[in-house]
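Intended use. Records like the one below are meant for learning the mapping from a protein sequence to its folded structure. Do not use them to infer anything beyond what is encoded.
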Amino acid sequence: MSTELALRPATAADLPAIAEIHLAARRSAGDAFPPGVHGDDDVRAWVSSWDLTSYDVWVAALGGEVAGYARWTPTWLDDLYVHPDHQGHGVGTALFETVSAHRPEGFCLWVFESNAPARAFYRRHGCLELERTDGSGNEEHAPDIRVAWPGPDPLAFLRGLIDEADLVLGDVLARRTALTRAVQSVKPTTERDPHREAEIARRVAAVVPELGERRVARIVDVIIAQSLDASR
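Structure written out for the chain above:
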């Protein structure tokens, strides 16, 4: 790595250069990134509106020129981009190491499933790929993957993520149980509907392809059976 590489917190004066790096890096990635949904000027306006007190933004500068940047919160790495002219020279690694030094307890990020170079980069730096999505939750509507850097104590970090997921699961189960109870008063029959339950399993399995439809169907059966039992 060049001895001229310097890493420092970004200032408002760096935001125009950051916007150009963001645009150039995504443009040069080709099919690794889905087509953007915002025009270049909209991206520039968005970057210029960043409140640098709301999250950490650091830049990597070579010879005084901004070559890359990273933006993160206490738990998420939102951006890590390197200008195409400076890729492959350790700038991305230096930025990643800066983030991990500031967030040693671990963090998560989203990577498009199509972005093989970025996925390989994060794997090299000790990251784990977690759940995949169909992309319905992002602007581009492109499948993505949650990636985690688990820090020096991966068991504690991953158990923390499990605890968060269990709270969400508890909320979903409470909602499902309440709805099952409510629907009993308006159904024309108390009999279960196997065709509807099969369709529920298909829909859920599409969101959790790693489990597959047969496993999901068994889970759905238990949830419905126990919800009905609780509603009696």
